[in-house]
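Troubleshooting log. The previous run stalled partway through. Resubmitting the same two chains, unchanged.
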Amino acid sequence: MAEDKDRLRRLRLETTMVEYCVSAGWIAPGAPDYSEADLARACLVRDLREAMGVNDEGVSVALDLLDQIHGLRRALRRVGDVMHGLPEPARQEVLVILRELDEA
Amino acid sequence: MNEDPYDVLGVKRDASQEQIRKAYRALARKLHPDLNPGDKAAEEKFKAVSAANDILGDADKRARFDRGEIDAAGNERPPQPPPNWYRDHAGGAYDNDAGYADMVDEDELLGALFGRGARARRGGGAQFRMQGGDIHARLDIDFLDAVNGGTKRVTLPDGSTVDVTIPPGTRQGQVLRLRGKGSPGLGGGPNGDLMVEISVGDHHFYTRRDDDILLDLPVSLPEAVLGGKIEVPTPAGPVMVNVPKGSNTGTVLRLRGRGVARKDGTRGDAFVTLRLVLPDTADADLQAFAEGWAAGRAQNPRAGMES
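Second attempt completed without errors. Output:
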């Protein structure tokens, strides 16, 4: 896949390193071609191992925690969307409840 | 970007390559944008730290910088790879909700807010689904439509119309819910509902008591005195009623099954209260009869009112 090779070179990723990420379970391509998310994740793994001196066990821990953070961020964004979708009186009510929680 | 790379990494001019490497690693661990997904400032600092490390991390290039052959902005710096942070791609296949699974599983509201079943959708990507809002409307209906059922067209605030089926026996103030006729849902979520509050009008001779219909029925003097069959209107259609001989104003006749329609197909009752009505114009025969009617003159209809 010449196109994949091009993309890897632009991101300064080694083919063997990306394949190592797959075998380690750090990235799991869902299609024959790597997705942007797959490659960005491989870049993160590269930074963790090379720039930050994190070992392989540490990479797994970091990725797992990061995936949880992104799951939480998505959940939080969803809650925000719901709040913004509420009619004005309901939104005011939520604000009042939150203020009461803060004062408690 | 043009700051002194030694200052950026916080190392002395005579630091060893190993000290520089350690300083860079410590800063990278702290500032890497993917470890600070929502922090723009960290990203700017990380860029500066990376640029400093590009120069000082390479002994050869560091020597050239020290000799003044390249500047802190990094003339001859190798082209930086375009930033491709993982955080910009998160929100898809790799997301993991284990961090709040306990809250979601135990709490129905949080589960809905946080997207219950997010784990089952892994790989499908994040999608925001929300049921549309309910629309509230008021509908004035005729007395007989409420009693017998019917259909009525409602015009919504957005100008569209909906035909509302009014079930038999609908009551004043009852709210009919039309599923899916409210505001459209978001992200494939279900539509909201249309909530129609019913206001029932008055009828010019029927009144209603739960499932029963009450009406006053005028009868003539001969009908009351002699009795006979007369036709009585009811919500279920006219019916022939036998007025007993000697009926009076206030006599109540019960017509079973001629009242308000119920869901199970039966009806309440109609209660007919007779009201004696004399002729509109004076009648000489009737006057003559009343004058000569001894028993009538002896009657005291107000006996119960004497104190």
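Takeaways: Chain B is about 25% helix and 20% strand. Chain B touches chain A at residues 24-25, 28-29, 32, 34-35, 37-38, 50, 53, 81-82, 84-100, 113-115, 118, 123, 126, 128, 130, 133, 186 (CB under 8 Å).
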